[in-house]
From TrEMBL:
It comes from freshwater metagenome. This is Unannotated protein. GO terms for molecular function: iron-sulfur cluster binding; metal ion binding. InterPro entries: Fe-S_cluster_ET. PANTHER family: FERREDOXIN (PTHR36923:SF3). The lineage of its organism: unclassified sequences, metagenomes, ecological metagenomes. Keywords: Electron transport, Iron, Iron-sulfur, Metal-binding, Transport.
Amino acid sequence: MLKIHVDMEKCQHYGQCVFEAPAVFHLNDEDKLEYAATADDSQRDDIQLAIEVCPMQAIKFVE
Ligand code: SF4
């Protein structure tokens, strides 16, 4: 099980993470980011890509 944290103080809701890992991240009806705090290990590569593309470096795995 993976644990994910997004620093919502940094997040600017650009949505790049949504394209990389749509099973974990999505934009709600108000274009605000929502995400799953936990994800299956099979999502690791997608989440890693989301971490890399996030322009605000707001996403990280929680150890
Ligand atoms: S890519 Fe980063 S800044 Fe953009 S919505 Fe995702 S977490 Fe927020």
